[in-house]
């Protein structure tokens, strides 16, 4: 956003902000944050709240040149430092807040969730209907990673059963999708007439 603003490419700034706010922050982070916010771990809840608040603050600062009155009003109603968003510092990249491992995990989860949702659409099976889901992973590290984040897969894929393994028997009638983590398998028996 900063480099585009410096080049006076304000249309691209708007597009970048829009894509980040809707496609990343709202569609994924806010939705995924509901899982730790509904669990018992108070430390995780506080971390999640802090990240949401920090990100919303930075979004308001980036949007402020385009929507000054709205962003000032919102900013005044969230935790902040200073008296006005006008005098707050322009956001910069803080390398200490870059967690490459978390980014990779998130990308893999999102890819799997999108794959399952697309496969469901192709066989006309609504997300509200639980279905068996199998994920054939490349190795045990990926398996451990997905098992640690199984709550997200269960919430966003609605499996009746979820199997994550390096050695899965693929049913004869199944829909498969190749993803970075391995392969997503939806057994089709009972889902469509064959």
From TrEMBL:
GO CC term (a single one):
cytosol
Catalytic activity as recorded in UniProt: tRNA(Val) + L-valine + ATP = L-valyl-tRNA(Val) + AMP + diphosphate
UniProt GO MF annotations? ATP binding; valine-tRNA ligase activity
Write out the entry's keywords from A to Z.
Aminoacyl-tRNA synthetase, ATP-binding, Cytoplasm, Ligase, Nucleotide-binding, Protein biosynthesis
**EC number(s) from the headed UniProt entry:** 6.1.1.9
Looking at the Swiss-Prot or TrEMBL record, what is one Pfam family this protein matches?
Answer: Anticodon_1
Record keyword ATP-binding present? yes
| Enzyme class, first EC level, given as a word | ligase
Which residues belong to the signal peptide in this entry? none
Q: Mind telling me which InterPro entries this protein's record contains?
A: Anticodon_Ia_Val, M/V/L/I-tRNA-synth_anticd-bd, tRNAsynth_Ia_anticodon-bd, Valyl-tRNA_ligase
Q: Where is the Methionyl/Valyl/Leucyl/Isoleucyl-tRNA synthetase anticodon-binding domain?
A: 1-134
GO biological process terms held by the UniProt record: valyl-tRNA aminoacylation
Specify the domain of life of the species encoding this protein. Bacteria
Q: What is this protein called?
A: valine--tRNA ligase
Protein encoded by which gene: valS
């Amino acid at each position: 956003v900063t480099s585009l603003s410096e080049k006076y490419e304000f249309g691209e700034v708007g597009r970048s902000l829009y894509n980040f706010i809707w496609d990343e922050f709202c569609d994924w982070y806010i939705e995924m944050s509901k899982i730790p916010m509904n669990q018992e771990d108070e430390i995780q809840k506080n971390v999640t709240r802090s990240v949401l608040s920090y990100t919303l603050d930075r979004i308001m600062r980036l949007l402020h040149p385009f929507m000054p009155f709205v962003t000032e009003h919102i900013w005044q109603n969230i935790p902040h430092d200073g008296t006005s968003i006008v005098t707050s510092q322009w956001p910069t990249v803080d390398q200490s807040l870059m967690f490459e491992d978390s980014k990779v995990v998130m990308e893999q989860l999102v890819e799997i969730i999108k794959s399952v949702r697309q496969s469901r659409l192709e066989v006309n099976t609504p997300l509200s209907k639980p279905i068996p889901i199998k994920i054939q992973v490349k190795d045990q590290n990926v398996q451990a990673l997905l098992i640690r984040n199984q709550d997200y897969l269960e919430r966003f894929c609605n499996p009746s059963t979820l199997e994550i393994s390096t050695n899965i028997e693929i049913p004869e009638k199944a829909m498969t999708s190749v993803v970075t983590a391995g392969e997503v398998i939806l057994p089709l028996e009972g889902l469509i007439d064959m």
